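In response to reviewer comment 3 from the previous cycle, which asked for concrete evidence that the modeling workflow produces usable outputs, we include below a single protein chain processed end to end. The sequence was submitted unchanged, and the resulting C-alpha cells are shown without manual editing.
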Amino acid sequence: MNSTIGKIGRFVYATPFAIFGLFHFMNANAMAGMVPLPGGVFWVYLTGVALIGASFSLIIQKKVKLVALLLGIMLLIFALSIHLPGVISGGEGMQSSMSSMLKDLALSGAAFFVSGVYSDKEDSTEE
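The workflow returned the following C-alpha cells.
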C-alpha cells in the first residue's frame, strides 16, 4: 500500500482510533458505567491503550494484519456488548445506541477488510 491515496486512507482510518483512545483516558470514569464487566475503569484504560496502539501500528505499518484483526474483534465486541443492548431496550437512547452500534460495525468491517487484504510482507517494507 504505497500509493498516495493508500497513505492518506491509512492516516484517515487510523487517526480517529488515536482520538477515541485519548477520550478513554480523559473520560474513564464516565465510560466505566458502559462496561459490561467488573473493573470498568481498568477496561476503559486497557481499550484506550489498545486503540492508541492500533492507530500507531496502522500508521507505521507494523503488524498491520494482526492489529487490524484484533481491532476488528474489539470493535465487534463493543457493538454487540455495549451498543446492541441499548438498541434492544428501546427508549430515549435507542437512536444514539443504534448510531454507535452501526459506527462500530462499519469500523470493525473495515478493520477485518484491512486484515484480510494486507500481506505479512507489507508489514516489513519501509517507505
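Residues 4-121 form one domain. We consider this sufficient to address the reviewer's concern, and the full set will be provided in the supplementary archive.
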